[in-house]
Amino acid sequence: MKTSLIITVFITAIALAVSSFAQSSPAPGGKVTNTGQVAVPANPATGQPNPADMMKQMMELSKIGENHKLLSSLDGNWDYTIKFWMNPDPNAKPQESKGSATRKSVMGGRYVMMDVSGKMQMPGEDGKMKDMQFKGMGLEGYDNIKKKFVTSWIDNMGTGIEFSEGTYDPATKSFTYTSEMEPVPGMKTAVREVIKIADNNHMSLEWYENQGGQEKKTMEINYTKKK
Fold it and tell me: What does the pLDDT look like over 29-58, one tens digit per residue?
């Protein structure tokens, strides 16, 4: 029963994709491209992509590559220390706290889920600083169509979902992600994250925010893999 449902959904998806391609297809005999990267041969008689060719392409794009294996290589249990620069005074000491993170590959290695927990000092309703339990969850992957690393993030400090896209530099063993956050209505802030892989047991994250047209480092996390 489940297999039949999956096949039906898959065929429906292909039919919708073919319909979408047909709406934007060139004259019969021309070529239609998938995000301008991979050509899908058109049927000379109809000018529409062949469903068999589309399925072959979709299956090819679903394969795991070296970029997925790179993310999976960071699987495991980690301890971390985090620093926040929340005070506008550049000479002020950062707030520090600790926590743990677990990274686990899912969907056959196509994605990595990360669960984070810890405590941090946050101002309460009375304005006084107090320990608060922090919970976060991330999902990372490499999009074969976009040819970019992609991530999403949620935590118990908000209700939104942060989406990021990035690249990897093998020379420096670092990921660079860009995104935009909106902690309060109308206050949109451009963000840049740099994740550096020192070795199999150590990595770090630096978080930069664009404040008033100037980029400022507001967070740093150092991870050590548990033995």
Answer: 443 333 445 566 666 666 677 888 888 889
Do residues 166 and 176 touch, judged by C-beta distance below 8 A? yes
First vs last C-alpha separation in the chain? 44
Given the structure tokens 């301008």, which residue do they identify? 36
Residue 92 phi, psi (nearest 5): -70, 145
> Which string of DSSP letters, residue by residue, matches 41-106?
EBPTTTSSB-HHHHHHHHHHHTS--HHHHHHHTT-EEEEEEEEE--SS-TTSPPEEEEEEEEEEEE
User: What's the CA gap between 145 and 123, in Å, rounded?
Assistant: 43
The DSSP H or E segment spanning 21 is: helix 2-23
CA 106 to chain centre: 14
Q: What is the pLDDT of residues 206-222, one digit of tens each?
A: 999 998 899 999 999 99
CATH of domain 66-225: 2.40.128.20
CA distance 227 to 111: 24
Alpha-carbon distance 124 to 129, whole Å?
6
